[in-house]
Design goal:
Main location: secreted
Bound molecules: protoporphyrin IX containing FE, 2-acetamido-2-deoxy-beta-D-glucopyranose
Protein name: Peroxidase
CATH topology of one domain: Peroxidase, domain 1
Largest sheet: 2 strands, antiparallel
Family: Belongs to the peroxidase family. Classical plant (class III) peroxidase subfamily.
CATH architecture of one domain: Orthogonal Bundle
GO cellular component, one term: extracellular region
GO biological process, one term: hydrogen peroxide catabolic process
Strand content: under 5%
Radius of gyration: 24 Å
């Protein structure tokens, strides 16, 4: 390099080092407009938001107890699929299939009551509170209605603009998935083995339709099932191919079907788990020690459950200026 070009190089690198960042590089980190998820994100923009949601969850629970099951299941089906962005709530359009209509979403219900909550919030603070925060906070308050722990959760999520139906199966395990796959999927979002064992405790409430069970009953009965429970299952699911129009199902926890408690763990240790994943949880040597510990201690179950729900609820959210605040939870906003 000659001295002339060396001089030129020096001037160039100095001017590069001191030039201000170009305007288009202006981002949230620099301007500080994105606090990410925080406790009580709406304290200035809509101070009543969390109270309205809590009130609505309570009112709905009084009228339809199973709404709380739905709020709990929603947090898994939305947040475990790449992001807590309320993509789960979008309806199908001419161009895209909704997540709700995929096979993994079978049995999800009560979406219209989530709209009820959103409408109540919109009446007070139009266009401020995201559907994804409503989905997460309704799960938090639904867990309390079911007798579970109160889990403080952050807010500030924004809503996505697309369905994730086409990649859903890569994230949500099937009812008959191996424990290795289940543990891998959750570990990819930071949830460890006791966390997975605690989350599956959600199957202490609600129901499972016969279509998800009949392969354990017909053509022959899964020998791992408890014979006492088989009798009940056959009674509830009398056909190898369930009539799709008849709503045939078995309650997840016959003992305390409406309460989120550690009875689930005693059931699965007793070979009364309905799904193959439930049964595997109690059989696999990686998960069984935690199943036993949670069967003995409700406190331990709740502690791990709270920790895992928190991680799940913070999975890769849209914050700051990303995404949007949907006006209606089942459709993306127009003109955007
Ligand atoms: C390996 C993971 C999981 C699998 C394969 C799985 C699968 C299923 C299936 C097949 C049903 C029955 C649906 C029906 O027939 O109506 C169900 C119900 C349910 N699941 Fe899961 N689930 C898993 C994890 C979770 C997690 C992590 C949660 C929440 C934290 C959850 C919450 C629920 C609830 C509350 C119900 C009852 C819903 C109702 O009665 O409406 N599940 N699950
Ligand atoms: C799991 O069950 C589905 C039907 O729900 C079936 O198509 C699939 O082959 C099963 N997978 C395994 C690994 O058994």
């Amino acid at each position: 390099m000659g001295s002339k070009s060396l001089f030129f190089f020096a001037v160039l690198s100095i001017s590069l080092a001191f030039s201000p960042p170009p305007a288009f590089a202006e981002n949230e980190e620099i301007t500080g407009t994105d606090p990410g998820l925080v406790m009580n994100f709406y304290k200035d923009s809509c101070p009543q938001a969390e109270d309205i949601i809590k009130e609505q969850v309570k009112l709905l629970y009084k009228r339809h107890k199973n709404t709380a099951f739905s709020w709990l299941r929603n947090i898994f089906h939305d947040c475990a699929v790449q992001s807590c962005d309320a993509s789960l709530l979008l309806d199908s359009t001419r161009r895209s299939l909704s997540e709700k209509e995929t096979d993994r979403s079978f049995g999800l219900r009560n979406f219209r009551y989530l709209d009820t909550i959103k409408e109540a919030v919109e009446r007070e603070c139009p266009g401020v509170v995201s559907c994804s925060d409503i989905l997460v906070l309704s799960a938090r308050d639904g867990i309390v209605s079911l007798g579970g722990p109160y889990i403080p959760l952050k807010t500030g999520r924004r809503d996505g603009r697309k369905s994730r139906a086409e990649i859903l199966e890569e994230y949500l395990p099937d009812h008959n998935e191996s424990m290795s796959v289940v543990l891998d999927r959750f570990s990819a979002i930071g949830i460890n083995t006791p966390g997975v064992v605690a989350l599956l405790g959600a199957h202490s409430v609600g129901r499972t339709h016969c279509v998800k069970l009949v392969h354990r009953l017909y053509p022959e009965v899964d020998p791992e099932l408890n014979p006492d429970h088989v009798e009940h299952m056959l009674h509830k699911c009398p056909d190898a191919i369930p009539d799709p129009k008849a709503v045939q199902y078995v309650r997840n926890d016959r003992g305390t079907p409406m309460v989120l408690d550690n009875n689930y763990y005693r059931n699965i240790l007793d070979n009364k788990g309905l799904l193959i994943v439930d049964h595997q949880l109690a059989a696999d040597k990686r998960t069984k020690p935690y199943v036993k510990k949670m069967a003995k201690s409700q406190d331990y179950f709740f502690k791990e459950f709270g920790r895992a729900i928190t991680i799940l609820s913070e999975n890769n959210p849209l914050t700051g200026t990303k995404g949007e605040i949907r006006k209606q939870c089942s459709v993306v906003n127009k003109h955007n």
